[in-house]
Amino acid sequence: MRNRFWLLALIFAASPLQAQELAADNYRAYCVQCHGMEGNGKGVNIRDMAVQPRDHTDAKSMSGRSDEALFKVIKEGGPAIDKSVLMPPWGDTLSDEEIRDMVLHLRTLCKCKFGS
Amino acid sequence: MKRLFILAVLFSSAPVLAVDGMAILQRDCAVCHSLTGPAAQTLKDAWSRKGPDLFYAGNKYRAEWMTAWLQKPQAIRPAGLNYGEHLKAGVKGDEVDTATLPLHPVLAKADAVAVTAELMKLKPHDDLISKEKLESGSISKQMGEMAFDKFYGCLACHQIEPEFGGFSGPELYTAAQRLQPEFMASLIRSPQAWNPKSWMPNKQLTDMGIQKMVRYLDVIGKESANAK
User: Which of A87, B18, B48, B194 could lock onto A78 through a cystine, CB 3.0 to 4.6 A?
Assistant: First the structure.
């Protein structure tokens, strides 16, 4: 029993890490560059952008987006919901589960829900 | 006498390299750069890396550029490798905290040549490179820029001339001087094939779109080189 436990532990430790990242970490890695350290849409990249990134702390505009729309725009990019091409698709970077977590994370940033 | 002859043959066939490039790589470069791979599989690992991975340097860089750059290193990424570590709050939003950007050591010419020769041997991703078939063709700077900016949105993160474009990605007006064309094509096709945690998203460009972007990078790369 004890041996089996260690074997399992080893397999998990050595398996290719498709480990899920925390949404806050994914946000820091991929979203902050445009949406900003504070999530206020004032990222380091915005100077020459024709369209400014969404302010994720703006409850009014964020409550106008359904969770499904947020999932779609993260996975497939801005044009998928008729928004800017400057918002890229993150479907090859984040798993569906990570994107669902990111939607929840966005709801904590805006302190809002869809339609609220 | 026979021994002398063997020694003479040994010396005459040995490459005249007074400098051991691999020794330099392992002693000075491996502290910050991965020379053996694999690429980071977690963000924690990605953030812990202080320099770009070099374990596929032979698939990625142009040798002549590498030798020159090592002797006169200049920043390529306006906000550093891990841009998140080099941000500060500014008046209009986040800014690059340039004081925190590290400087790369300068190598003497002989060392740079020897190190480059070793780096060019590191080619674990010939499989990805061989998938790219670049066709000759041209694109005007204007059309290329329109696609780059308006169709694909790459300008969000990359600069196409000094001080124009985003900060989190590498400058691209020198990309064609630095990088092998097939690498550029392969990276655009799938950044995650090279680095699963890459900050760069896969924009799902078509084959034609990739060809156009590589040609455009060549156009602005030549313009940038001529301007020097």
Answer: A87
